[in-house]
Amino acid sequence: MTADEFGQLRRAVSSDQVVGARQDIETLLREIEEGSGSGHGVRAGIGAYLLGQHAIAERLLSDIAGDGVALYVLGMVYLSTENWKEAEAKFGAAAKAGYENVEATMKRVSAIRMQGRLEEAESALKQTGMEGTRRAEYSYQMGCILADRGDTYGAIEYFERAVDMDPHHAQALFRLAGENALYGNDNEAIRLYEQGLSKAPYYIGALLNLGLLYEDKGNYSAAAFCFRRVLQHDPNHPRALMYMKDIEATSEMYYDDDMAKNEARLEQLLSRPVTDFELSVRSRNCLASMNIQSLGDLTRVTEPDLLQGKNFGETSLVEIRELMQAHGLRIGQNLQPSKPKDAAWQGTATGGPVGSYAILPADLSPQEQAMLARSVTDLNLSVRARKCMARLGITSLGELIQRTPDELLATKNFGVTSLNEIRQQLGEISLKLRND
């Protein structure tokens, strides 16, 4: 198979021809298994990769030498399975076997970068010379290198340059859309995802994220279309199935007008300044010294906290308590559950899910400490779930599992679908949310 034929097959699997292309590949795979498809191992292996059957693709392609396309696709298999070292080697071999050198080099740069060797990745990228700089992929890879170095603005500039050179560069559009979604620019994120999905191949991550953004906007039919497109490619995709189930459940949802009005009134009440009410000068001054400015602030402190204020005694406490009771409130009713400063993960004797937070880091094994120190980005969450993590300031798994489901659900645009997504991802590594 030539590089052009590989490109055509990839577009067929990703486009409206997906059903026919999938059937042809599956037929060929069956013939290979039955021993009647000899001579088509490369094509079958490439087809298996395009269908996401990486184990089969690796088995069929790993013994093939001297075929540039086979080696390139095997490198892509290893990239998909995060076997960075093998991917690096296969892309290098693909270039030597005649696969287009600049393309193979840029993919090898991805593998090098994912191993944390950023200087080497940049050096290899620049070795593609003028031919490399003319390609959108060059700017995309440079943007990824800058992003890995923490230079977000520099990375965005390169991603935008890649899109200027190739308006359909799906990965650059994906990164730009993700950045916009993370900072709340949902309309721009939707536009970028739509642009990235306007031409095959269609990336599953982009379809899922776009569907979630549509769902946030209440455009359920568009969201369902995105999730169905994923399921057309992979009928058993767990996240797409979960999101579709949530979309289908919206038909059973109803809007409680009275509840909404009550919530609005409560929000307005909690925002009222304490200076609106008749309080003694001492109580007023004490609250000001503690930076308590509204009734809502009083619902987030405890009575002992108030008594610790200078010149704040029992008389002032009774006065504040009566003020809150007069409006159907109480001191500390919205207090966040306390988090022990040094509390950490406690597993079961068999390595089961988290049960409590009663032990200190010193009591944890190095493996358990490493687990809790991992970034929440390792969970490969959707844009919506990542935005929730950002709003709550959650950066590590240890911080995440100290949150309850109710705390997460209280975050803007965070619903049961996102909660189930986080539960599923945590469950795969034997963790769970507090009180879950």
Distance between the termini: 52 Å
User: Strand portion, in percent?
Assistant: under 5%
Q: In percent, how helical is the residue content?
A: 55-70%
Main beta sheet strand tally, sense and closure: none
Number of helices: 26
Give the C-alpha Rg.
27 Å
**Low-confidence parts, pLDDT < 50 over ≥5 residues?**
252-257, 337-361
The gross shape turns out to be elongated
Order of helices and strands: HHHHHHHHHHHHHHHHHHHHHHHHHH
**Mean pLDDT metric:** 79
Q: Got a strand count?
A: 0
Helix- and strand-based class?
A: mainly alpha
What does this protein structure show overall?
It contains 26 helices and no strands. α2 crosses α3, α5 runs antiparallel to α6 and α7 packs antiparallel against α8. The longest helix has 17 residues.
Question: Would you kindly provide a brief summary of this structure?
Answer:
With 436 residues, this protein is mainly alpha-helical. It has helices at 3-14, 18-34, 41-50, 54-61, 68-80, 84-96, 101-114, 118-126, 129-133, 136-148, 152-165, 170-182, 186-196, 204-216, 220-233, 238-249, 257-270, 281-289, 295-298, 303-307, 314-326, 366-373, 383-392, 397-400, 405-409, 416-427.
Task: Give me the secondary-structure topology.
Layout: H1 3-14, H2 18-34, H3 41-50, H4 54-61, H5 68-80, H6 84-96, H7 101-114, H8 118-126, H9 129-133, H10 136-148, H11 152-165, H12 170-182, H13 186-196, H14 204-216, H15 220-233, H16 238-249, H17 257-270, H18 281-289, H19 295-298, H20 303-307, H21 314-326, H22 366-373, H23 383-392, H24 397-400, H25 405-409, H26 416-427
